[in-house]
Amino acid sequence: MYSQGLKDAEGGQEPAGLLKAFQARIDKEEKIEPRDWMPDAYRQTLIRQMSQHAHSEIVGQLPEGNWITRAPTLKRKMILLAKVQDEAGHGLYIYSATETLGITRAEMNEQLLSGEAKYSSIFNYPTPSWADMGAVGWLVDGAAIMNQVPLCRASYGPYARSMVRICKEESFHQRQGYDIMTSLARGSAAQKKMAQDSLNRFWWPALMMFGPSDKDSTHSAQSMKWKIKRFSNDELRQKFIDATVPQAEHLGLTIPDKDLNWNEETGHYDFGEIDWQEFINVIKGNGPCEAAEVYQQKKIQS
Length: 302
Ligand SMILES: [Fe+2]
Ligand SMILES: [Fe+2]
Known about the structure:
The chain is mostly helical. The protein is 62% helix and 2% strand. Strands 1-2 form a two-stranded antiparallel ribbon. Strand 1 (261-263) and strand 2 (268-270) form a beta hairpin. The longest helix has 29 residues, at 157-185. It starts with 15 loop residues before the first helix and ends with a helix. Mean pLDDT is 90; it is low at 1-5 and 290-302.
């Protein structure tokens, strides 16, 4: 349980009156701005979350940047180039927003390079085929949209505002990925297989992007109270699955989950067990590429 919420930076108690007034502002949906008083734990939570978010935007350029020179046509190259540039912009907006909380860009960089700060585990998976550029756009940017749209209403003003443009651009990213998948799925048997293989590689890692299950999520309750988070990890994951399964069906591709079923009663898809040990291994950086291969074998052959 995340209980440091009442401790200040020196480990003392935050003044009760200020805390109460702060929470009242949040409850009234007022935005908290950089010069406003805020509990130290709120500040630290935002620094952690926003800097990890910014790092993910920057690291996310790497696998796609590698594909720019290998994109199959000039048009695909231009689209991918624009997308990678967008991701650089997202990183910069969010770094700037994070700096308003009193950490410098250099400090954040150092934390990224030393491994102290994390970034999204999804970028530790290899992207060996062009179809992966499709699956990444469709699934990874698609999952990012699910996570980021509610952040447009986050209680911290600079973070919320930076998300508005980012979400518009993410929706272009998702569509360009789906467009690649559509071309491949309608192409030759070999192209369709490329698309299916890539879906097999990225489906489960995309589901893991929403973070641990609610019962194991240490930061969620406090973040919901502070209105940094609006939906739980499991709610967002379910929304993503419900939106994405029909898209896979439209492509004629098969989601690699034998337990996936529409549930009339709940009005949602039921889905299989997520292998969280795999998630933990990837977060710890234990041979991600190797882990991904083992993971893929295990999921597809089971
Ligand atoms: Fe982005
Ligand atoms: Fe994106």
